[in-house]
Design a protein that fits this description.
This protein is mainly β. The chain has one domain: Immunoglobulins (Immunoglobulin-like). The protein has no helices and 8 strands. β4 and β5 form a beta hairpin. The protein is elongated and about 60 Å long. The strands form 2 sheets. The protein has a 5-stranded mixed β-sheet with strand order 2-8-7-4-5, with no helix packed on it. A 3-stranded antiparallel β-sheet has the order 1-3-6, with no helix packed on it.
């Protein structure tokens, strides 16, 4: 089994109401369930099926994923903050595995 590695790139601090960029990447092979191994057996589906970002407990970005998503899903989106807080990033995988990262954001 490959090691699943989530990463995020977020500024440490932003100015109040400033639009800032968030980049996320998770190293994951995203097996679709449509391929066969050397013996002809179907390789079970195992993908990241949902990604979400919360700021101070409120969902601010979320997406449901399907088989057509490439390996190592990358997301880039913009947010705006009016107060300091915590960004929580959650990747959910088929079978129930959950990968998380948190980042404290300071708003000046």
């Amino acid at each position: 089994m490959a090691i699943v590695t989530p990463r995020v790139q977020v500024p440490a601090s932003v100015t109040r109401n400033e639009l800032f960029l968030v980049k996320t990447l998770i190293s994951h092979r995203m097996e679709t369930g449509l391929r066969q191994d050397a013996q002809g057996k179907v390789i079970p589906r195992q993908i990241i099926n949902r990604f979400l970002c919360r700021f101070n407990g409120v969902d601010v970005f979320k997406v449901d994923l399907h088989e057509a998503v490439a390996a190592n899903p990358f997301f880039e989106f913009s947010l705006r903050a009016t107060e300091s807080g915590t960004l929580d990033f959650v990747w959910e995988e088929d079978g129930g595995a959950i990968y998380t990262l948190s980042h404290h954001l300071t708003v000046n």
